[in-house]
Design brief:
Distance between the termini: 33 Å
Number of strands: 2
Radius of gyration: 17 Å
Helix content: 40-55%
Order of helices and strands: HEEHHHHH
Number of domains: 1
Structural class: mainly alpha
Oligomer: single chain
Length: 148
């Protein structure tokens, strides 16, 4: 068993314990943060290399749900921005508002869907980027209050 100080050092202030990305549900911001910590091979590994591997895993999860995603490069950039923002906030003593915003969003969907339309009935996205009719209620649920 890890000593208390080692266990405390392995616990992230916002995400908690590192954990592999779950493959049976669309991930929240917190899930992505935990997966980032798990994916990181060593302390000084560059952010882009970790985000590249994590982006590939995210795409696999979203493909299982039959929901189209943004490009792999777009996912990598979204991950880099999110993890970068978290790192800045943790280092800053004056970023209280940004930290509160990040904490509020921990349980919201890390949305990489290609269609960002709020109302699918008025969606004007190209056909290959539209959310399939059978998946719309599921995605709407995931984007709002997570049920189950």
């Amino acid at each position: 068993m890890l000593s208390r100080s080692v266990a405390a050092r392995n616990r992230h202030i916002l995400f908690g314990e590192a954990r592999e990305l779950l493959t049976f549900s669309l991930p929240t911001h917190k899930d992505v943060g935990k997966a980032y910590l798990s994916e990181k091979s060593y302390e000084t590994e560059p952010l882009p290399s970790v985000c590249k591997r994590l982006a590939e895993k995210l795409v696999e999860v979203w493909i299982k749900s039959s929901i189209p995603t943004i490009t792999l490069r777009g996912i990598e950039l979204q991950l880099q921005k999110y993890i970068g923002d978290v790192q800045k906030v943790i280092r800053s003593k004056s970023a209280t508002l940004k930290r509160e915003e990040l904490e509020r969003n921990l349980d919201t969907l890390f949305d990489i869907c290609s269609c960002k339309c709020k109302e699918f009935s008025s969606c004007c996205c190209p056909l290959n980027l539209k959310v399939p009719v059978a998946e719309r209620d599921f995605l709407r649920d995931q984007r709002t209050v997570r049920v189950g």
